[in-house]
Specification:
Belongs to the glypican family. By secondary structure, the protein is mainly alpha-helical. It has 14 helices and 4 strands. The strands form 2 sheets. A two-stranded antiparallel ribbon has the order 1-2. Strands 3-4 form a two-stranded antiparallel sheet.
Length: 341
C-alpha cells in the first residue's frame, strides 16, 4: 500500500548518483508521524469502519505534515533540473562533446599529412631550436618480423542513431522532467491517487465519519506546518538539510560551468573573459604565472599559438613556428622595478 511506503519512499537521488537515496532516512520513524498515520489509517478499524478512507483535507494535513521536510527539497530540486537543462542546451552543434571527439580523426589525418609533406623543413627547424638529439645505443631486443601477412584492418560497425550521446542526454532529461515536481507534490499525489476520498462522500476526519473536513488545510513545507491541526512539525530533518546542502553545491557547480565560446581560450590564458564564461584566469607559479606586486597576475611563460612550418625556407625559423624560442626574456626575467625586460 502507498501508506506503508510513505516513510520508505526512495526519491530520485538529488545528489550525485543515488546519494540522496543512501542518505535519506524517513521522518516517519518519529513518534509524531507514526501517531498521525496510525490515527488516519487504522483508528477507523477500531469502530468497525474498515472500508472508510480519510477525507481529502484531513489526508493533506497529515501527509503534508509528515513530509514537510521532504517538501523543502522542492525548490532546490527544480533548480537542479533547470541547471541540467541549461547545461545540455549549450552542448549543441560544434560545442557538442561527441561531435568534437568524432572529428578528432580528421584533424589527426591533416596533421600527419602536413608532417609528411613538410617533414624535412620541420626537422630542420626543430634542430635549430632544440639542438640535435643525442642518440643512445639501442638496448631493445631485435624483433624478427614474421612472414605472416598482417590481418585485415578492423572495420567499425555503424552505430545506431539512438545510441548517440545527444539522444541519451535527451532521454535522460525527459525522464528527469517527469520528476520535476516530485518533492513538492508527493504528499498531494499520495492523497489524490490512493489514500483519501473527496469531500461530499462519507470519509474519516480523525474522530468520526463525516461528509466534509472542516478544519483548515495547510500548505507544504516546514513554515506552513505551524498551523497544522493534525501534525506538529518543529524543525526540518537534519538528514534532509544535508541533502539540500549537497543540492546547493551541485547547482553552483552546474551554473558555474559553461561551454567556452570560440576564441575564448586566449581570454582564459590572459586572465580575462566575459561574464558568461566565468573564467577567472587564476594560476600559480608552477603554471608560469607570477604576481606584479598588486592584484594583477601576469603570465611569464612563453605563449604558444598554432604551430606551422615556414612557407619559405629562408625565413627565420623562430618566425615560422609563430612563437619565440624560450630565451631568458620569455622565461620572465624581470628588472628590479618588476617590469619584463
Amino acid at each position: 500500500m502507498a501508506l506503508g511506503n510513505v516513510g520508505k519512499t526512495a526519491a530520485p537521488g538529488p545528489a550525485s548518483g543515488d546519494r540522496g537515496h543512501q542518505h535519506h532516512r524517513p521522518s516517519s520513524a518519529e513518534p509524531r508521524v507514526q501517531r498521525a498515520l496510525l490515527k488516519m489509517h487504522y483508528c477507523p478499524h477500531c469502530q468497525g469502519l474498515t472500508e472508510s478512507k480519510p477525507c481529502m483535507g484531513y489526508c493533506l494535513n497529515v501527509m503534508r505534515g509528515c513530509l514537510a521536510s521532504l517538501a523543502e527539497i522542492d525548490a532546490h530540486w527544480r533548480e537542479f533540473v533547470r541547471s541540467l537543462e541549461g547545461l545540455s542546451s549549450r552542448m549543441q552543434g560544434p560545442q557538442d562533446l561527441e561531435q568534437v571527439l568524432l572529428g578528432v580523426h580528421s584533424l589527426l589525418n591533416e596533421a600527419v599529412g602536413n608532417a609528411q609533406r613538410n617533414g624535412q623543413r620541420i626537422t630542420t627547424q626543430v634542430h635549430k631550436l632544440c639542438g640535435a638529439p643525442s642518440r643512445r645505443p639501442s638496448q631493445s631486443v631485435n624483433i624478427q618480423h614474421s612472414s605472416v601477412k598482417d590481418p585485415l584492418p578492423l572495420k567499425t560497425a555503424p552505430r545506431p542513431t539512438n545510441d548517440a550521446l545527444a539522444q541519451r542526454r535527451k532521454d535522460f532529461l525527459s525522464g528527469l522532467r517527469f520528476y520535476r515536481t516530485y518533492y513538492g507534490g508527493l504528499a498531494d499525489q499520495l492523497c489524490v491517487s490512493d489514500l483519501s476520498r473527496s469531500d461530499g462522500t462519507s470519509c474519516w476526519n480523525g474522530t468520526s465519519i463525516v461528509h466534509s473536513y472542516t478544519l483548515r488545510v495547510v500548505g507544504s513545507g516546514i513554515k506552513a506546518q505551524s498551523s497544522n491541526p493534525e501534525v506538529k512539525v518543529k524543525e526540518a530533518d537534519p538528514v534532509i538539510n544535508q541533502i539540500i546542502d549537497k543540492l546547493k553545491h551541485i547547482n553552483q557547480l552546474l551554473q558555474g560551468k559553461s561551454i567556452p565560446k570560440f576564441g575564448s581560450l586566449d581570454q582564459i590564458e590572459t586572465g580575462s573573459g566575459d561574464a558568461e564564461g566565468r573564467y577567472s584566469g587564476d594560476c600559480d607559479d608552477e603554471d608560469g604565472c607570477a604576481g606584479s606586486g598588486g592584484d594583477e597576475i601576469k603570465r611569464i611563460g612563453p605563449r604558444v599559438s598554432k604551430m606551422s612550418p615556414d612557407v619559405s625556407s629562408d625565413q627565420d625559423p623562430h618566425h615560422g613556428l609563430h612563437h619565440h624560442s624560450p630565451s631568458a626574456k620569455d622565461l620572465g626575467v624581470r628588472s628590479s622595478s618588476g617590469a619584463r625586460r
